[in-house]
Specification:
With about 450 residues, the protein is an alpha+beta fold. It has helices at about 5-10, 15-25, 35-55, 125-140, 165-170, 170-175, 225-235, 260-265, 270-275, 290-300, 340-350, 380-390, 405-410, 440-460; strands spanning about 55-60, 70-75, 80-85, 105-110, 110-115, 145-155, 180, 195-200, 200-210, 215, 300-310, 320, 325-330, 360, 365-370, 370, 395-400, 415-420, 435-440. The strands form four sheets. Strands 1, 2, 3, 6, 7, 8, 16, 17 and 18 form a nine-stranded mixed β-sheet that branches. Strands 9, 11, 13, 14 and 15 form a five-stranded antiparallel β-sheet that branches. A three-stranded antiparallel β-sheet has the order 4-5-19.
Length: about 450
């Protein structure tokens, strides 16, 4: 089957593909707000109808929350499952948008055409790159070079409460040779990337109790213990002067970077000054021994997300608070065990409690390990070669600072290796006002998936 014909069709049909994407973007499928239940249903129905129109058997599957969309198309090559999500983040604060977030339009920014709308990048635009690649392939050849299962979710932006039960109940139907996910960014502008490392997560919260009640700072100021002051000392003890986490046992399971990954990342074109300058930083403030890229992609963190206590209203209240509170999260890498990290963190704090204080831990273990993909599988190099051909630049195996739970679920629940390939950019403003997706990302994303499908199909025994 001719790949050139498919790529030519994609080029010729770009405008109709954009119109289809705009139709989907006009649906305000905000999953976290019950007021948009009907719109989430409408987005699922739109996808079912679009896939059915391509000759693909698609169904809406009900869940306790928003529906899933599942579709199947036969092919001669390996079995691929493609995952995406049709729900979007809320648009607040609305006044910061330059236009209606659900009235998509093409705008020009710094000489580049962009699609401006909520969900343009996360994840409707990315999801449709794969759908459009399949549409073009089927239009040219009447079939796909691989067997494909489509799996679209409507609750990703609200915690995916229905996802794990649905996957377990439908494991036989959903299991394939490899899972494809298009919900990630490129390592640098114009640099095609396959995310092969995702950081895990540990959440923790504690209260430091001191006096039996809030105290008058005149009557007790001096001799009374102040929990805010003491919790500040505890927080300061989490890191040493080089930015390294100073909790014993924290780094157990953290791997060293391979020479090959270091080579790929060195050639990635990552501009540390620009990356940090966007957020008003002049230098990296993590572990001094690692670059900003390595800190984000390959190193664990311990971050203070919130600290509070005492009086925080307007004016002054002369009080010594009875207790202070702290919320923490850890991003995990490699083989770090969330339970072991939690135990190490708690032991660190409990060993440093001052006299007349008590620590109260809130909640049970809330965490997930990092995901590290098996890049020795042939699909990864085939996909990397296809991406390199499309973008005329060597694609890289990249890390990601965030956590994408679905990737881990594919491994643990379905026993599948996930391959994360996305075409978003760091400046797409996902989850923020004025979200955008470059037209180039959409166009070349479609072409990229066509090349990947072809490469995987041609390599099948």
């Amino acid at each position: 089957m001719s790949l050139d014909a498919v790529l030519s069709r994609i080029d010729a049909d770009l405008d109709p593909a954009l119109e289809r994407l705009f139709d989907l973007l006009r649906i305000p499928s905000i999953s976290t707000d019950p007021e948009y239940q009907a719109d989430c249903d409408r987005a699922a129905e739109w996808l079912v109808k679009d896939l059915n129109a391509m000759g693909i058997a698609a169904e809406r599957r009900e869940t306790p929350g928003h529906p899933m969309v599942v579709a199947h198309v036969d092919g001669d090559g390996p079995h691929l499952l493609f995952y995406g999500h049709y729900d979007v983040q809320p648009v607040d604060p609305l006044e910061l948008w330059h236009r209606d977030p659900f009235d998509p339009a093409i705008e020009e920014v710094d000489g580049q055409k962009v699609i401006r709308a909520r969900g343009a990048s996360d994840d409707k635009g990315q999801l449709m790159t794969f759908v459009e690649a399949c549409r073009a392939y089927m239009a040219e050849h009447g079939k796909l070079p691989c067997k494909v299962t489509f799996f679209f979710e409507g609750e990703e932006e609200s915690g995916s409460p229905s996802l794990v039960p649905f996957m377990k109940e439908n494991a036989a139907e959903l299991t394939a040779d490899v899972a494809l996910i298009c919900d990630t960014t490129m390592a640098a502008p114009g640099l095609p990337s396959i995310a092969t490392q995702l950081r895990g997560m540990l959440k923790e919260e504690f209260t430091l109790k001191g006096p039996r009640m809030d105290l008058h700072s005149g009557l007790y100021g001096g001799p009374a213990l102040n929990p805010l002051r003491e919790i500040s000392k505890l927080i300061a003890s989490f890191h040493d002067e080089t930015g390294r986490v100073a909790v014993d046992g924290f780094y157990e399971g953290v791997p060293e970077l391979s020479d090959e990954l270091r080579r790929q990342w060195a050639d990635a074109g990552f501009d540390e000054t620009t990356f940090l300058g966007r957020i008003g930083m002049s230098r990296a403030h993590g572990e001094e021994a690692f670059s900003a890229m390595e800190q984000v992609w390959a190193r664990p963190t311990l971050e203070v997300n919130g600290m509070w206590g005492g009086y925080t209203g307007a004016g002054t209240k002369t009080v010594i608070p009875a207790e202070a509170h702290c919320k923490l999260t850890c991003r995990l890498v490699g083989d770090q065990d969330p339970a072991q990290v939690r135990d190490a963190l708690r032991a660190h704090i409990e060993a440093r409690l001052p006299v007349d204080t008590e620590v109260v831990w809130h909640g049970s273990l809330d965490g997930a390990p990092a995901s590290v993909m098996d890049t020795s599988r042939p699909e990864f190099e085939l996909a990397r070669g296809a991406l390199s051909d499309e973008w005329s630049r060597e694609a890289v195996f990249a890390g990601m600072g965030g956590s994408i739970p679905i990737a881990g679920y594919f491994k643990t629940i379905l026993g599948m290796e996930p391959m994360l390939i996305g075409f978003a950019k760091d400046d797409d403003a996902i989850h923020s006002p004025n979200e955008k997706y470059d037209v180039e990302s959409f166009h070349k994303g479609i072409r990229s998936w066509a090349r990947i499908l072809d490469a995987l199909g041609q390599a099948a025994p």
